[in-house]
Amino acid sequence: MKMKRTVFIVFWLLTAGSVFASGSYALRPPAVVDVRSLAAGGFHICDVSSAYMLTVNPALLAFAGKKVLLPSVAFDIGGPLGDLPDLYSRMTDSGSTGSFADVLLDFVGKNNGLDLDVGVSGPLTFGRVNKNRGLGVFNRTYVTGSVPSVSVSSVTAGEEMVFAGGSAFPLLNFSRMQLSVGVSSKLLVRLEGTYDGAPASLTSFDFGSVPVSATVAAGGDIGAYFSLFDIIRFGAVWKNLYAGFVKDAGTFSHMTLSSAKPPVLLFEKGTLAVGVAFNIPVGFTRGVLSSWTVYCDYADVPALFTGSADAFKVNPVLALSAGMELVVFDTIALRCGMNGAYASAGAGIDLTPFHLECAVFGKELGLDPGVRAQLHGAFAVSFYY
User: Is the residue at 166 inside a domain?
Assistant: First the structure.
């Protein structure tokens, strides 16, 4: 067991060290979708109830006990959802005198462009946490589209899988005080293709000719966790350290890795996230509330210290998140929160191991609130205990 742990740590350190090498392109971290967390403002690094804690903060594994995530499915769609019915009716209205381009141009101008996201997570999603260690596999199929003008569009479709393993080390384990550190390793495999061209050409375009790229990257997270009186919890994690490469993989109709082009190195140095959680006593509710938890996180601490002259600096408000979860009669969960400048809300039913989750939340694709805002809806059928 000591040998396995040593190999695990050495592998992670080698990966982390390679991230700081020069001459590379940025890598987009994978997206692991948990609808429960999305309803409460996003992932929170002190959330000890999450079935996805392995991908959030590996230090939580130390005191998580046994958790099992069985194959589950989650659906997520995002965009200007409130305006889409009107857009559809205008395009299909037989009495409309405007062409497809006219309707789309008017819509794009009103919304500063059109952005759509559709994703399906699972069913190859499962994991296990036990005795300070965890293993997991997470997959996601996605399509993202951006139409900044009536003559320009970009549509990306892909599949990604993340294989993760983690281990935590308890430093203090008393009834009123707990402290741990944890480390995780991840392997990302991604296959995706992108169409760039006029939106009007999408209906007749041969998507089999879209160039495809294959990405393979290794990385991990390192985190810390502290709990006091089981009322207040603190956490910190340096997450999404990745090193890997991307290589041409032919087209959708003819995939191959025999391209003469050399692979391109990809690196992502990650960032530091911090968070705090409060367990509010619920004894006064006489059993109506089973738990009441409040979370607050900041997802990108280093960005607070970068110069304001950076033209691509993201507004610091977008890294702030907060959320709350109320569990009623140990069965019904009510959640709300905010992520960046946008609110979120949702609910869940716990019929362990069967869970139903839903969420509505906002998301910003730009550098400042309101630049490229999206409204998302998500629904999940999950099995975990």
Answer: yes
